[in-house]
Specification:
The protein is built from 11 helices and 14 strands. By secondary structure, the chain is of the alpha+beta class. The protein folds into 2 domains: about 160 residues, Uridine Diphospho-n-acetylenolpyruvylglucosamine Reductase, domain 3, CATH 3.30.465.10; about 120 residues, 2-Layer Sandwich (Enolase-like, domain 1), CATH 3.30.390. The longest helix has 28 residues. The termini are far apart.
Length: about 290
C-alpha cells in the first residue's frame, strides 16, 4: 500500500484517478485504520488529505453561511465560536464522536463517507440543509448531504471522487438546531438512535420552518418530512408533541441487535426527537430575546 500526502486539490484528484479504483481517501483515519487492523483488504493507495489547506479551514461568509473543509477535525469545529453559535446542533453532533484523541483527527468528511447508519454528524447536517462540494475526474458537483449515503458502507461518490467541503446555508433570525443520541455506555459508543431537529420561529414563537432527521434506526440516516410538517404553525404544545413522537417512531426501520430491539429503538427515536425539538425551540427563542 502506497501512502501519499498531497498538498493541492489537483494532486488528490490526480492520485485517485491514477489508482483506478484501488485508492482510498483518509480524511481522519479513525474508522479506516481500525478497519485495516480488523482485516479489511488494504487499497493499493492511501491518500491523506490533511495537508491540503483548502480541506482544513472553516470560512464564515458575509451572508452568514459557512464552508467547512472535509478534513477539519471535530476538535477544531468545537472550538469555532461562530459556527457553534449559529449551528449548535451540527457542532454538538460532531463533538459526540469518539474520545478526545479521536476528536483531534475525526472529520465531517470522514464521518459521512464512512457511511454508517449511526453516523452522528449526518442527521444534523441533513436538517441543516448542508451540501457537499465533490471533486473528481468528471469535474465538480454539489450534492445534498441527505443524498450521499446510499446504503451501509456505500456512498454516491465514484472511486476517483472526494469531498472538498460542506456548505451550511445562512440562518434566518430566530433559528436553531439540536442533536441528541442514546448510546449503551456513557461515552465512545455507537448510537442506539439519534435525532436532529432544526426550527425557525416567528415573532410570536410559532414554528415557521422545520426539519427533522434520524440516525441509527434505518439503513441510512434520513429526513422525516411528516414530522417536520407537524411542527409547522405550532408552539410545540404538549398534545402536538405526542403526535410528533408517534410520527417519528412510526417512520423508523431499525433492526434488532445487541444495542436494542426494534420496539425499543422506535420508542427512543421518538423520545429523542421530542427533546431535540424542544431544545432547538428554546435556543431559537433565546436568540429572539438576545
Amino acid at each position: 500500500m502506497h501512502y501519499h500526502a498531497p498538498t493541492e486539490l489537483a494532486e488528490v484528484a490526480a492520485l485517485l484517478a491514477s489508482a483506478k479504483g484501488q485508492g482510498r481517501v483518509m480524511a481522519g483515519g479513525t474508522d479506516l485504520l481500525a478497519r485495516f487492523a480488523s482485516g479489511m483488504p488494504r487499497p493499493d493507495m492511501l491518500v491523506d488529505i490533511k495537508q491540503v489547506t483548502e480541506l482544513m479551514v472553516i470560512e464564515q461568509h458575509d451572508n452568514g453561511s459557512f464552508t467547512v473543509g472535509a478534513g477539519v477535525s471535530g476538535a477544531v469545529i468545537g472550538e469555532h465560536a461562530a459556527l457553534c453559535r449559529v449551528w449548535p446542533g451540527v457542532t454538538e453532533a460532531m463533538e459526540l464522536i469518539g474520545s478526545v484523541q479521536i476528536q483531534g483527527r475525526a472529520s465531517l468528511g470522514g464521518n459521512l463517507c464512512n457511511a454508517s447508519p449511526a453516523a452522528d454528524s449526518v442527521p444534523a447536517l441533513i436538517t441543516a440543509g448542508a451540501h457537499c462540494r465533490i471533486l473528481g475526474g468528471q469535474g465538480e458537483r454539489q450534492v445534498p448531504v441527505a443524498d450521499v449515503i446510499q446504503s451501509p458502507g456505500k456512498t454516491c461518490l465514484a472511486s476517483d471522487e472526494f469531498i472538498v467541503s460542506f456548505y451550511l446555508p445562512p440562518r434566518p433570525a430566530r433559528s436553531a438546531d439540536a442533536y441528541l443520541r442514546l448510546i449503551p455506555r456513557s461515552e465512545m459508543d455507537i448510537a442506539v438512535a439519534g435525532a436532529a431537529v432544526n426550527v425557525t420561529l416567528d415573532n410570536e414563537g410559532v414554528v415557521v420552518a422545520a426539519s427533522v432527521a434520524l440516525g441509527a434506526v434505518s439503513a441510512v440516516p434520513f429526513a422525516v418530512p411528516g414530522a417536520a410538517e407537524l411542527l409547522m404553525g405550532s408552539r410545540m404544545e404538549d398534545d402536538l408533541m405526542a403526535q410528533f413522537k408517534t410520527v417519528v417512531s412510526s417512520s423508523c426501520r431499525p433492526i434488532n441487535d445487541k444495542r436494542g430491539t426494534i420496539d425499543y429503538r422506535n420508542h427512543v427515536a421518538g423520545v429523542l426527537a421530542v427533546r431535540a425539538a424542544r431544545i432547538a425551540g428554546e435556543r431559537a427563542a433565546w436568540k429572539e430575546k438576545a
